[in-house]
Amino acid sequence: MAQFLAPITACCALGAVLAAPADKKFAYVDLQPQANQKLADNFGSGREGNNLAELPKGEQTFEGVKFKIEDGLIQLGSKLLKEQRPDKVEGIKVGKTFAKLHILHATCYGNGSMIGQEGKEGDPLFVPDDTLIAEYKVHYEDGSTEVIPVAYGQDVRDWWFTDNSKGVTRGKVAWKGDNELAKSFGGRVRLYLSTWENPKPAKKVVDIDYVKGKDTPAAPFCLAMTLEEK
After folding, report:
1. Helices (H) and strands (E) in the chain, counts
2. Would you kindly state where each structural domain of the chain is located, as residue ranges?
3. What percentage of the chain carries pLDDT values higher than 70?
């Protein structure tokens, strides 16, 4: 199983917008054909004001990586979601060779019921660290497959956070913002960047499947994917 790159220490605060190096060539993966959640609509249980309406749209650079932020994202399922979502979204088209895959993603739920406090076993909204909550299955033109794991606490955490919330050990916080519901509980929202080094950069990738992991309260979502071609 291929692994994510270890996180690189940023030269400034986590979540800052850094310019992309001029020598990097990026290409965007279009998630909109499979998108099932609008940024401006309410996430999770559907409570008013719980959204990503504040996230800037269009071509954006987060932690040195360019992403294209559009109206929709891919939300995987959880029994805690108001609207039914699938546990698997297949056939996200790529059709290119690339050296690295950059992913902008997060999850609803995982911290526990009380924002600002660490959850524990038995809490219906708690997910233990290192739990596999999703996978990206990368399908090559020659029929081979690589699996990119998404582990809670390593790659992503609950998108709601406070200053006391833990960070991630393998990914990076890419963006921090606000929404009205999180603010009413004394919290904010954040998104995470994961970078995967392709072990077969000369082979064309046909498509990618986004698949929920073991049955947990987590409801993973993916906003954007960017290919780094060199």
Report:
1. 1, 14
2. 32-228
3. 87
